[in-house]
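Illustration 12: Transcriptional regulator, LacI family.
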Amino acid sequence: MRFETSTIKDIAKALGLSTSTVSRALRDRYEISEETKKLVLAYAEKVNYRANPIARSLKERRSYSIGIIVSEIANNFFSQVINGIESIAYDKDYHVIISQSHESYKQEKLNVEHLASRSIDGLLIALSSETQDIDYLRELYAKGLPIVFFDRVPGDFETHKVIANNFKGSFDATEHLILSGKRTIAHLTNSENLSITKERLAGYKAALAKYHIEFRSELVKYCQHGGMHSAELEQAVKELLPLKPDGIFISSDRLTTGCIMALKKTNPEVAHKLAIAGFTNSNLVDLFSPSLTSVKQPAFEMGRVATELLISMIEAKRPVTEFETKVLDTELVHMTKH
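Figure caption equivalent — predicted structure in token form:
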């Protein structure tokens, strides 16, 4: 026997209403009275009515799906952002389709174009470390695809953006190292292309300047692939150690955990003498050795806010012309030495 679900027509027939009235009541439209809405919703719950998403998408010419592009899902920060995205999307009956760029511009572009071809209703994206040309995103945006950037954002793109307070987070971390007595503080960071790299470098420089410590460019090492290639990270650490830093400020989640591993592999004796502060959303920070003072980003909240802004664009009755950049505060978590 084939299982059959109740339809809007079934509800309308049972209640003596038109199908359009039932449809509008289920969508909480203003023109339907509260009494009728309650009647329809109560009966729909009784017969376990569920909207047909395929029929709905065909009728409304929407897929009720959102595309997400991150560098890698295994990254603690991005996995928490995705949880935040899902918490809003699923609550509003949107599905999410997640793709990874692996810090590759080519892969990012292929993924975005594939998602667009699958008729996603909107895109949430954190740019890859290789991405400099975003014309392909401008073209999709001009054709009507809503796009919201988070974490790694372009400077000259008129849409909503959601970021952490990168300047303050890096300033606080560097200042903490200075107040701990450190004077030769290295900075390990991502690709120079990224917005987070520029903002975190500025915070690092500002903290040095406040305490009259000269900025030395040789103490800054850029990792083009953000720590995804261990050889690149190990090379950066090897170049830093002869400069005898007594502290390191690290600007991203994967770089922070990767740097600790690289230090142990390269020079375990020095590793335990270095003070380290870095951006990481790992829940295992207290197990790290050497110990780490961490800058935590509100990743879950970033995902929630970005998704709310994207859905507001998708569901807007008129073209959205006013945009905002939401800046969320970071938190400095002090760790004591083991």
